[in-house]
Design goal:
By secondary structure, the protein is of the alpha/beta class. It has a single domain, classed as Vaccinia Virus protein VP39 (Rossmann fold, 3-Layer(aba) Sandwich). The chain is 31% helix and 23% strand. Strands 1, 2, 3, 4, 5, 6, 7 and 8 form an eight-stranded mixed beta sheet that branches. Strand 5, helix 7 and strand 6 form a beta-alpha-beta unit. Helix 1 runs parallel beside helix 5 and helix 6 packs parallel to helix 8. The longest helix is centred in the N-terminal third of the chain and has 18 residues.
Length: 249
């Protein structure tokens, strides 16, 4: 069964994504060349502008950049930035006078992202080693927050949404893709390993949306949702959904 120790959860997730940074495995533990490379949600013409050490470590369940347009000169923060894929794509949309911050708690991912940034010659992206509920970013300084299949990994989602609300400007946007549930998982699915693979830590959809509203967001809209792994051999996976959400402060 999964541990109830939040510190242990953080250690487990950090270890999992350290392995991802090193091995280029996907977030579901199978040999892969990255989520984005296998997802129609990421246009191929955008991916070819990047490098394999960006795309091959991408792990997600959607594309938060498609939820709402990033505007020139905006300040963007990516919660759980990994190898930097969404940061680098967002930086093209903000333009040279915009700014993108990637926040990730895994030192190996921060190191990889900074190497990727140097190889790509991108100037308006900065990576911060912190947990996503304690970013260290100034209050009311951000136009857009992105996140791709990361918040479900946090032990306390409510604190993540409170932090998002704190750093966003008025009318700021929260654009997230994540995993939610339509029903409770069986005991067999609730394991430490499945927490790291985006399952055991997922909330019921209603609870997830309520947690965003409780943080202070005035508008919370479901943009899309689909069964996460429709071909899974496990019957309970039919209750696991990938969802895209747009919330406004």
């Amino acid at each position: 069964m999964q541990t109830s120790d939040n510190n242990q959860i953080i250690i487990n997730v950090t270890n999992r994504y350290t392995d991802l940074a090193v091995s280029s495995n996907d977030c579901c533990g199978e040999e892969s060349n990255g989520y984005a490379n296998n997802s129609p949600e990421y246009p191929k013409e955008e991916l070819v502008t990047l490098i394999p050490t960006v795309t091959e470590v991408s792990a997600g369940c959607g594309n938060p950049l498609t939820i709402s347009t990033i505007r020139p000169n905006e300040t963007v923060v990516d919660f759980g930035s990994g190898g930097g894929i969404d940061c680098f794509l967002a930086s093209k949309q903000t333009g040279p006078n915009g700014k993108v911050y990637g926040v990730d708690m895994t030192p190996a991912m921060i190191n990889l992202a900074n190497k990727n940034k140097e190889k790509l010659g991108i100037q308006n992206v900065e990576f911060i080693e912190n947990q996503i509920d304690q970013t260290g970013i100034a209050s009311e300084s951000v136009d857009v927050i992105l996140s791709n299949c990361v918040i479900n990994l946090a032990p306390d989602k409510s604190n993540v949404f409170k932090e998002a609300f704190r750093i966003l400007k008025n009318q700021g946007r929260l654009q997230i893709c994540d995993i939610v549930l339509s029903g409770n998982l069986p005991d067999e699915a609730i394991t430490d390993d499945n927490w790291c693979h985006c399952l055991s830590g997922a909330l019921l959809k209603a609870d997830y949306l309520e947690s965003i509203s409780d943080a202070g967001f005035t508008s919370v809209e479901t943009i899309s949702e689909r069964v996460y792994q429709p071909d899974s051999e496990h019957e309970w996976m039919k209750s696991v959904y990938s969802i895209s959400i747009l919330a406004t402060k």
